[in-house]
Design goal:
The chain is of the alpha/beta class. It has 6 domains: about 70 residues, no CATH class; about 70 residues; about 180 residues, Rossmann fold (3-Layer(aba) Sandwich), CATH 3.40.50; about 180 residues, P-loop containing nucleotide triphosphate hydrolases (Rossmann fold, 3-Layer(aba) Sandwich), CATH 3.40.50.300; about 70 residues, no CATH class; about 90 residues, Alpha-Beta Plaits. The chain is built from 28 helices and 33 strands. Strands 1, 2, 3, 4, 5, 6, 7 and 8 form an 8-stranded mixed sheet that branches. Strand 14, helix 16 and strand 15 form a beta-alpha-beta unit. Helix 2 crosses helix 3, helix 9 packs across helix 10 and helix 24 packs parallel to helix 25. It binds zinc ion (2 copies). One zinc ion binds next to loops.
């Protein structure tokens, strides 16, 4: 401290899969630039890595002589605010992942590409004649020739794979250095050249230009009226605007500047301002309760449960208005923004004077980067976005709305497996904000929280303008089978595939009463939606002679038969789309041409079983040859533009009948739709997942909700093999409460969430034997830890093979853990992880998924 500057210290989270944060010394030369929320280059082991500064302080927690120094401060401005750090820490702790990984997830992707790992030869390494393997010597020799190499290029030069552990070993011996270098982020603000008028020309100059430089004179005249212009805009009227501008700049008449050009994530079409709708009595009551809390500046979670078409959006909008008028900011989360163009449109039309940012994965990384920086600089007051927008750096947050809070899209299914809805509640609590969770069919978790009084329930039982809920009719598909005198086929179909639907002939997927209703609705000039949650032509292909099924070689699931190559750019294919009918894996994208004969017995008797959206489309075309029919599924929808166009065509009545997967169930408001049909309502009931009943109820209620939203009353037809199931019966009667009571009784009896908290621990790897072995070990470790007294209330299921045993070539086993409360579960999981990770083998990956949404 010779220069009188006080030493300062920092907690830094490495941007690596390493738990926790570490203390560093900040050299006096860097103190001025250091700030929480910025990234720094720091030594870590024998590497130099990027880390995030969490905290800066005067009193070191460890012996300062042993602390390593910060090497460089990377950012000019902080990337996040100190207020956000508690949520990041909670997220890391709860979902059991490194803090650096959480921060990486929270920041827009373009920001993170700053570090590039380089391997550099040391002096010692240059004349290494030590006892090294042949490969190590070759490696050192190659690097010595080039001095340094990017780590990801090493294998190319050596012409064989080089493992991290070999590099680390050599680094430990001081023969190599592994360094993270800083490269400018890939995504930068886009700039453009602009020309600006500096002064008007004198008389002499004017005369000179008019005679000797006519084009320059013309540009000056243009600028006199416009003051400034982008060079790119001038290209239409001038041949070489930049050259002209430069000449004028030399005369001191204009100035050329670089200006930041903002990429616009939505089209620039003008959206007309729309008037607030008048509220129903129920909407008013709900709004009053929310407004009360907003005025008190106090945290509260509301569960706004409103039947489809009851006007939840209007309640969101008017709540947001109040929050904004008090100078606070608003965050609106939607499941998939690309699927909700109408909601975005409504918000923009109601807040014409507010700057709204949009954040979702459908934006280019440049667009996302710009939007994110606008939020970070405090230039916007409202953010509408999908899951990851929960991390948006909004300051002074007053309200978070989570629309369709039950939607599984709020759960991230890889990396940091967070649930955005739950983080919204945590964040709002930290920042004294109000949360509104909106849904027609709340998740049982949220409904249970409302029952316990943790959340305040607000109900909208009526549709706006007192429109009736659609009339629902159920058709028993078993009768269709009887009519056909159904006999089980003689094929050796495995028992697990014994699903009556697989034997249902195509002619009967549209039962007679449904066919009549479809014809009638078309004749009246009304629109229809047909829902079947399975794309492709049919879900399975079978050899009738040897029983061979066509299974994906990478995943243990049947390949789906697709008849027409309707695939477009942006769909799930890798490589080129096939030209004729084909078999496709819906999990990994593997595809082959549809075979003409069985590869096992060479029989040509190959038959497809079950029905997908393609087949329905074909069938409907035969039934209603004059109707204009469209299909909405992942094969026909390449990106949000195609989707948006199709919704617009539905709005303008250019389409009579829309067939689709669950995409059609999302919250569109299509007043012309008066008939909705769900072809196989029990499809989702057969999944080996304790939430299958809940999902079935939710999807049927949502699909049904698309009917009768305009002036004409709506009708819904549900076909099912299982019509007496309570999930279907409750959907039939629009009865959430009835469903809730029955389902909760089951959950209680089996000890499932929401009565308990659940975690799924999955072991996966390429070799079946080693994964099975690790899974057994995992089970033993779990049961051993459970012997501790505090863990008595914990329940362990498994290890067992995952329902989808093989996925993308990885074999999977899983253990399910249930605990009465989250903290105990967290403690238990941490102990398992620590013990398991101490084992030698690295070929098996362990993933912990808390509050898992998918158990497959
Ligand atoms: Zn065969
Ligand atoms: Zn596959």
């Amino acid at each position: 401290m010779s220069n009188g500057l006080k030493e300062r210290y920092a907690q830094i989270a490495p941007a690596l899969p390493v738990e926790g944060s570490f203390e560093y010394k900040i050299p006096s030369s860097l103190i001025a630039g250091a700030q929480p929320g910025k990234r720094a280059l720091v030594p870590f082991g024998n590497q130099k890595i990027t880390g995030y500064i969490l905290n800066i302080y005067d009193q070191p927690q460890l012996d300062p002589s042993r602390l390593k120094p910060v090497l460089e401060i990377i950012d000019q401005e902080p990337l996040f605010f100190p207020e956000q750090i508690p949520m990041f820490k909670f997220c890391a702790d709860y979902y059991q992942c490194p803090l650096g990984e959480v921060l990486k997830t929270a920041l827009p992707p373009g920001i993170n590409v700053s570090a590039r790992r380089i391997v550099k030869i040391t002096e010692l390494g240059k004349d290494a004649s030590l006892l090294l393997s042949k490969k190590a010597k070759k490696l050192l020799w190659v690097i010595a020739q080039l001095e340094e190499l990017p780590k990801d290029k090493i294998s190319d030069f050596i012409e064989e794979p080089v493992s991290d552990s070999l590099l680390n070993q050599l680094a430990k011996k001081g023969l190599l250095e592994i360094i993270d270098t800083i490269e400018p982020a890939k995504t930068k603000p886009r700039t453009e050249l602009s020309i600006k008028l500096k002064r008007l020309p004198s008389k002499e100059e004017q005369l000179y230009l008019a005679h000797r430089a006519k084009e320059q004179a013309r540009l000056m005249n243009f600028l006199k009226s416009a003051d400034s212009a982008l060079i790119s805009e001038l290209r239409e009227q001038f041949k070489n605007p930049l050259g002209l501008a430069k000449s004028l700049e030399r005369r001191g008449l204009v100035k050329i500047e670089e200006v930041i050009y903002e990429r616009k994530p939505f089209s620039l079409e003008l959206i007309p301002f729309s008037e607030p709708a008048s509220l129903s009595r129920e909407q008013n009551q709900a709004l009053t309760e929310i407004q009360k809390r907003i005025l008190e500046n106090r945290h509260r979670v509301f569960l706004l449960q409103g039947v489809t078409g009851s006007g939840k959006t209007e309640v969101y909008i008017q709540s947001a208005k109040l929050v904004l008028s008090r100078g606070r900011t608003v965050l609106i989360l939607v499941p998939e923004i690309a699927l909700t163009p109408q909601l975005l449109h409504r918000f923009r039309s109601r807040f014409p004077d507010q700057r709204i940012a949009v954040l979702h994965s459908g934006l280019s990384s440049g667009e996302r980067f710009d939007q994110w920086w606008q939020i970070r600089r405090g230039e916007v007051s409202m953010v509408i976005g999908a899951r990851s927008a929960i991390f948006a750096p909004l300051k002074n947050l007053g309200l978070i709305v989570v629309d369709e809070e039950q939607d599984s899209a709020y759960k991230q299914e890889s990396g940091v497996r967070y649930q955005a809805r739950d983080l919204a509640v945590y964040r709002a609590n930290q920042e004294n904000a109000v949360v509104v969770l909106g849904s027609a069919t709340p998740s049982l978790e949220s409904a249970y929280n409302a029952e316990l009084g943790r959340y305040q329930l607000l109900e909208l039982r009526e549709r706006i303008d007192s429109r009736p809920l659609p009339e629902v009719q159920i058709l028993d598909l078993r009768k269709e089978l009887e009519k056909l005198n159904f006999e089980r086929s003689a094929t050796q179909m495995p028992d697990s595939e014994l699903n009556p639907e697989k034997f249902l002939p195509l002619e009967s997927i549209i039962s007679e009463p449904l066919a009549l209703a479809l014809k009638e609705n078309f004749r009246r000039g009304n629109q229809t939606i047909i829902f079947l949650n399975r794309r492709g032509f049919s879900p399975a292909l079978l050899c009738l002679d040897c029983g061979n099924r066509f299974i994906c070689p990478n995943c243990s699931v049947a390949l789906t038969f697709h008849q027409k190559p309707t695939v477009q750019k942006g769909s799930s294919f890798y490589g080129e789309a096939p030209k004729k009918s084909y078999l496709l894996c819906h999990h990994c994208g593997y595809h082959i041409p549809a075979p003409d004969f069985c590869p096992q017995c060479l029989s040509a008797r190959i038959k497809d079983f079950g029905i997908g959206t393609e087949q329905v489309e074909e069938e409907i075309k035969k039934l209603l040859p004059l109707a204009k029919i469209a299909r909405m599924d992942r094969d026909t929808m390449a990106g949000r533009k195609a989707y948006f166009e199709l919704i617009q065509k539905m709005e303008s009545r250019e389409i009579d009948l829309l067939i689709g997967t669950q995409m059609v169930a999302k919250g569109h408001d299509l007043p012309g739709v008066t008939l909705v049909a769900a072809l196989l309502a029990d499809q989702s009931l057969n999944l080996p997942d304790f939430r299958s009943g809940e999902r079935t109820f939710q999807i049927l209620t949502q699909v049904a909700g698309r009917s009768g939203r305009g002036d004409l009353p709506g009708k819904v037809i549900i076909q099912s093999f299982n019509p007496e199931h309570y999930s279907i019966q409750s959907a039939l009667q629009h009865d959430f409460k009835g469903f809730y009571e029955q389902e909760m009784a089951l959950r209680k009896a089996f000890g499932y969430p929401p009565y308990t908290r659940c975690a799924l621990i999955r072991a996966s790897g390429l070799k079946k034997e080693s994964v099975a072995e690790s899974a057994q070990l995992l089970g033993r470790i779990a049961r051993q830890i459970k012997r501790q007294k505090i863990f008595v209330p914990i329940r362990i299921l498994g290890p067992a093979p995952a329902p989808i045993f093989k996925l993308r070539n990885r074999v999977r086993f899983q253990v399910l853990v249930f605990a009465p409360e989250p903290a105990l579960l967290g403690k238990f999981l941490r102990q398992i992880k620590n013990k398991f990770e101490a084992r030698p083998s690295q070929s098996v990956r362990l993933e912990v998924d808390r509050d898992p949404v998918s158990l497959l």
